Every structure is written in structure tokens, then in C-alpha cells.
Amino acid sequence: MAQPPILSLTNVKLTLGAETLFRDVTLKVGARERWVLVGRNGSGKSTLLQIMAGLKEADGGEVFLQPGIRAAYLPQEPDLTAFATLRDYVLSGLNEDEQHLAYRADILLNAVKLDPDQATAGLSGGEARRAAVAYTLMPEPDLLLLDEPTNHMDIDTIGWLEEELRGSRAAIVMISHDRAFLRALSNGVFWLDRGQIQRLDKGFEHFDAWAEQLAAEESERLRKLDKLIKEETVWSVQGISARRTRNQGRLRRLYALRDERRQVVQNQGLVSTRADSGEASGKRVIEAKNISKAYGDRVLLKDFSLRVMRGDRVGIIGPNGAGKSTLVKMLIGELEPDTGSITRGTNLTPTVIDQRRSALQADRSIWDTLADMGGDQILVRGQPRHVVSYMRDFLFSEAQARAPVGALSGGERNRLLLAKALASPTNLLVLDEPTNDLDMETLDLLQEVLSDYDGTLILVSHDRDFVDRVVTSTILMDGQGGAQEYPGGYSDAIHLRGLSGGQAKAGKAAKANEKAAKKTAEKSGGSAAQSAKPKPSKKLTYAEQIRLDKLPDMIEDKTNDIASLERELSAPDLYSKKPEKFHQITKDLDGARAELEAMEEDWLALEEKREGR
User: How many domains in the chain?
Assistant: First the structure.
């Protein structure tokens, strides 16, 4: 006999002003179930979680929490001002009949790397959130409602929280941008999509394929209806499939870059002393030799060497306080090492993005923020773009162009910051913890932007999945002065470190690199398609072989078409003088890009079949 749900929502709706945030939301949460709540930025996920927690009232419908069930809610911005110390704050989460659990306060605070006797006054936002995690877990509740629980946590603490939640008897509903965290814990997904809930009774690892399938089905229904619908709805549905298709091509490009990077990274994390023959001047961006840094008795870095070449994408991961930001400051020249030397290439123009929303003015519009020199054009790394066209790249609709920044959600403000910063001409991009407080949609967008970025990237992040998707090599810092560079992303680095027991041994690492390189060579090949015709094979039908022979030229022609459309779209005053032509070119450009992606996917599938893969 099925057990009754411990929490249920029936036909819940909420209206903010003239806008209906969601309607007819119906869902059930059973004992020990683990649900992810996902949705586009601004869709109302956090508000819905607050309704579940009883902190906000809906305009209609029913919210039912089974009697005797203890629920605990983790907010994004906790308030600790009423308490003297962190221990006092965490203990306040216990009822009178739960005082036997008081011993857990110090254990939980130590686990999130906080001193129980620390005063609540003067806490950073990250410290307050980590304390709130301890507060939420303190009473061992039956239901956990978690809003971005991994924000401001380092890799070690995220791992601890995963294990804590995995061993918990509580049911969980969580909002998070950390894909690896969600894959590890979830067994179901609630998708808040355009005001309604879609339910997937599988873990988050199945979400992308499921969402793409739903989007394809809806696109087909819309096509059959053959009537006009709002532009935003079309973009919402089609954007899901288009972004995921683009990501596949970009991942293959990343594999190829990692293969190049593997030739540079040495087993012990030391740069090669061999002179690079025939390298163009300026190709070497940063070279650090045996650098060390300490503050008193605390050693952050000891005898670390690194070579960063033009186009490299280097990730830096380690526990809080390990010296990640200090290493970055030394690499870009803001801080000098105690010992060793750092040589930087010529003509470096670094841009540092730290996600400070205070850089935006609430009373200015999105248009004026981007085109701050006036007019309707913006220079994007030296190339003119119409401000509306550039806005679309960052998921803003034309209707939002004149909206004040103060009316934007947190995720939208982050997107605007990224758009403004990434427009600047730069050949060295430094992202220090860019994923904190970013929604999943903006993370996908940032990955796309970084994939198109043609400069050098240094990334500090605790988001394992994001690092895996973006970087060509990863530096692991242990918090005790040790640091080692490995080819590939975070998962690759952990695997290689495990093979060598933390000390890279040449034989095993070389074998792993050889295997990884072979895998990379099999996966990559987009550029090869344009430079060489595939050889005939009995594994292809005659028609398939003809198609494969033609595709490289077709891809090149379509690429030229896209370049031509982009030049037309960047023409000054096009939007103001000929808005209909602007919209038609935008539509044609989207179609051409989709056709190019389809051709590349087709070429890859045929090439893999030809080679028997």
C-alpha cells in the first residue's frame, strides 16, 4: 500500500502584480524522496520553495504538510543578527524536546569550516550561508527544503554535504546550479516551466534528454497548430534544443584543446625546460618557475611551476583558504611571489570578473548599461554589434531592452554583468568564483560564451561539472602548499591523481594520457572535416559516402553564409532604420546556425560510422 505524501501542493497559484508567476501547481513529496526543482531564471523556484516551507502564502490552492512532520528551510540570504555566536544561532534551531541533539552544533559548524565561537557580526555572505546549512541540518528534520545549498562552499565541503544528505532519512526538495551535486542526490525532478510543473520520476542525470524531448514534442505541436504565438514562447521551447545541440559541438572542441594541452602538462606539474622551437612571439602567456608564497607560518604555495600558452583554459580548484585567489593574483601581476619568478607575455589585457552586482546602476536600462557611450551599437571585443542583437546572446528579449536594471532578478543581473564585462577587448580572462549565485541557465550560457572566447582563460571554481565542461587543464591545490597541474577537467585530474596516489608517476600518467588522447582524437574532428575528404569505406552505403564527401564543402559554404549575415546585422542604424530587415536577418541567422549545427552532427555521425566506432 502506497504511503501518503508528507507534503503536497494542489492547484497552487501566485500572482505578482499583473503577472501570474505560476498556476495550477500540483505536486507530491513522499518520505525520503529526493527532488530537484529546476526552471528558468525568474520562473519562481525560490518563491515556490518558500510556499512549501509555509513562509509565503499562495493566492489560491492548497498546501498540505503531514502532521508531525518537521520541515527545515535553507534560504539564500539567512539573517543571523539576533544571535551573538554561530553556536547560538545553530542551537536556536532546536525545540525544547530536541535538546539532546545539541552536541551536533559544533560538529556541523566544524564540518562547514566555521568556528562555533565566531561572532555573527561581520560575517561574509558565504560564511552566513554555510552557518545556515548547519542550522538547517541541526534538528535532523523529516523534510529539507534547500535553496542553493552549495553556494560559497569549497569542493571538500560540498563532498561532505553530499555524504550528509545521502545518509539522511529526510525527504529533500532542492534548488541548485551544481549539476554534479544534483546527479549525486536526486531521484526525481520538478520542472517549473512557464508557470506549471512538469514531473520526471528519474534522477537529474536524465533531465537534459527529457527536457529536449518535451521541447521537440511541443515544437511539433506548435507547427501543426500553424498559428501565431508569442515570440517568448517560441524562444523558450526552441532554445532548449538549440543550446544543447551547440554544447555537443563545443564539448568536442574542448576535447581537441585538451589534447593540445596534454602535450604541455608534465607529470609532476613542472614546466618543461626544453626550448619551444618555432613558436610565434607572444604565444607564451604566463610562465611561473618554482614560485612560493607564505603568510607567516602559513604556506599557501611551495615550489610551483606552470606554463600557460595562448588559448589555454586553466582551472584552479582547492579548499577555501588554499590560496587559489592568491595564485591568480600572482599570475596576473597583482601580487609578487616570495620566491621564484613569473614571466608574462607582451600585450596582455586581462579582464577579471568577480560577479559584484554593485557594479550595476539600478536606475539605468539594460540598453544604456551595455551601450554606455550612447547610440544603438556596442563594440564586442573590437567588433560592432547592435545592442539588441548582443542582448539576445545573453538570453534577454527585445522587450527587456528598456527595462531598469533594478527590476531584474539576481540571475538576470549576473547575465548583464557578464555581457558587459565580456564585451571588453581582452586576451586574458580571469574568472574568480563566477558560478556562485548563478542559475543553471546562466551557467550554460557562460559555458557557451567561454567556448567561443578566443583568448586565454584562468578559472577559479568549486563547480565540478562547470570545470569539466570548460577547462583544458586543472590545478589541484591541497591547502598545505602543494599544487599540481593535470590535463583535462576536474574529473580527469582526480582520476590521474588517484592513479598515482597523489604523486604523478611517469609510467601510469603517460599511459592514462595516451588513453585519454586516443579518446580525444576519436571524439574530435570538426575542423578535420573541412580540411580532408573522408576515405571510402564498405561500412557506409553509397548514398552515405556521397553525403560524407559533400558535407565539408557544405559546412564551409554555410559558415560563409553565417559570416555574411553577421556582417549585415552589425551595420550601423540597421535596427532603427529598417527594423523589419533586422528581424528577418536575425531569423535567417538563427536558421543558418541551426543548419550548420545539423551538418556538423551529420558529418560526425557518418565519420564515426566510417571508422567503425
Answer: 3
Question: Which parts of 161-226 are beta strand (E)?
Answer: 171-175, 188-193, 196-200
Phi, psi of 16 (to 5 degrees): -115, 105
Q: How confident is the model at residue 149 (pLDDT cuts 50, 70, 90)?
A: very high
pLDDT at 60 over 90: yes
Instruction: Let me know: does 59 contact 45? Beta carbons within 8 Å.
Output: no
Residue among 368, 375, 436, 357 at smallest CA distance from 404 = 368
Per the structure block, which three cell numbers stand in for 428? 586574458
DSSP state of 187: S
34 found inside a domain: yes
Strands 171-175 and 19-29 come out as unpaired
Question: Cα(474)–Cα(205) distance, rounded to whole angstroms?
Answer: 24
- Whole-angstrom Cα distance, residue 317 to residue 310? 21
Residue pair 109/138 in contact by the 8 Å Cβ criterion: no
Domain range for 571 is 528-610
527 pLDDT higher than 60: no
Residue ending a domain, among 142, 173, 204, is: 204
299 and 153: one domain?
A: no
Clarify whether residues 513 and 543 are in a common domain.
no
Question: How distant, in Å, are the alpha carbons of 138, 396, 405, 415, 584 from that of 402?
Answer: 46, 11, 9, 16, 22
Residue 249 grid cell: 559541438
State whether 461 and 593 are in the same domain: no
Element (H, E) at 353: strand 350-353
Q: Residue length, the chain?
A: 613
- What's the pTM? 0.69
Does the residue 231 lie in any domain? no
pLDDT over 50 (residue 502)? no
